[in-house]
């Protein structure tokens, strides 16, 4: 029973992380750059 609870908590955490990444992608944020070209050597789009 404990294994199932831990598995559900882990799945929920991964789900929230993926959801956050999708929201950031849709709002134009980037994992590599963050919108500040001075920090990524001008590779921003």
Describe what this molecule looks like in 3D:
The chain has 45 residues and is mainly alpha-helical. It starts with a helix and ends in a 19-residue tail after the last helix. It is elongated, with a radius of gyration of 16 Å. 56% of the residues lie in helices and 0% in strands.
Question: What is the secondary structure topology, with strand pairs?
Answer:
Blueprint: H1 2-26
**How would you sum up the global shape?**
elongated
- The low-confidence runs, each spanning 5 or more residues with pLDDT under 50, are none
Helix amount: 55-70%
- For the terminal residues, how far apart are their CA atoms? 49 Å
Would you report the number of β strands?
0
Total helical elements: 1
β content, as a range? under 5%
* Biggest sheet record: none
Overall pLDDT metric: 79
The run of helices and strands is H
- Radius of gyration, in Å, reads 16 Å
**From the helix content, strand content and strand pairing, which structural class follows?**
mainly alpha
Question: Would you kindly provide a brief summary of this structure?
Answer:
Helices cover 56% and strands 0% of the residues. By secondary structure, it is mostly helical.
């Amino acid at each position: 029973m404990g294994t199932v609870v831990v598995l559900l908590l882990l799945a929920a955490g991964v789900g929230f992380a993926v959801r956050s990444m999708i929201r950031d992608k849709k709002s134009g944020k980037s994992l590599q750059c963050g919108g500040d070209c001075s920090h990524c050597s001008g590779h921003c789009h």
